[in-house]
Amino acid sequence: MNPKYFIFDMDGVLVDSEPMHCQIIHEVFQQLEIPFPKSYIEETLTGMSAIPMWEKIKHDANRSEQAEELLQFHRSYFYNRFEEIEVIEVQGVKNVIQKLKNRGFSLALASSSSRKLIDYFTEKINISHFFDVIISGDDVKFSKPFPEIFLKVAQWYQAEPENFWVLEDSKNGVQAAKSAGMNCIGFKNPNSGNQDLSKSDLLIHSMNDITDDFIENLIRNNGKF
């Protein structure tokens, strides 16, 4: 039997933080007089790490500043609001983590967020100890939808990508997982906007969908239903 590896995204999968991120970015747009609606953020930017995101915004909004300048403004604004942020775990996700652990899966976290934010969120909901390795947006050159972040996880384990399952809630994340040659479960989180998850191998609407039988089928059929 092939080794069993499972990679979690963070925002929208472990923590229900996408509405918060969307709101903060929208407020930054207002501060900078960037006339884009929240739908642009939800449908275009979800799943991207910081610099590529601001490079895209800079291009789309025809801004003269460097992406690094725009990002610095965003981070300063965000960290000023840091202590106000309520960190809410996705309902049922800790149960899923424990079930996978019980069935012998090795668990990793791969998120486009900064290491500082990942550490803050995972410590707040007390899950950081479950993961063998955490790869952040700070650790990669090319953000999702590029596969680099997932390939770094496979490299860390010295395992073939085909032995991994990834749980993602965004179009960019699903595309990155599939481009890496991994199996992907799309999580239709209503708080993550209207994401196109059609390229995922399986689709769930709740963490409760990942039952013991669901996990057993992942193992028995090597992901082929």
TrEMBL record:
Which Gene Ontology molecular function entries are recorded, alphabetically? hydrolase activity; metal ion binding
In which organism is this protein found? Answer: Capnocytophaga stomatis
Q: Which NCBIfam families has this protein been placed in?
A: HAD-SF-IA-v1, HAD-SF-IA-v3
Cofactor section: Mg(2+)
The taxonomy runs: Bacteria, Pseudomonadati, Bacteroidota, Flavobacteriia, Flavobacteriales
Q: Could you tell me the keywords of this UniProt record?
A: Carbohydrate metabolism, Hydrolase, Magnesium, Metal-binding
Gene3D superfamilies tied to this protein: HAD superfamily/HAD-like, Putative phosphatase, domain 2
Pfam families linked to this entry: HAD_2
What protein does this entry describe?
HAD family hydrolase
The entry assigns this protein to a family as follows: Belongs to the HAD-like hydrolase superfamily. CbbY/CbbZ/Gph/YieH family.
Stored InterPro entries? Beta-PGM-like, HAD-like_sf, HAD-SF_hydro_IA, HAD_2, HAD_sf, PGP-like_dom2
Report the superkingdom from the record.
Bacteria
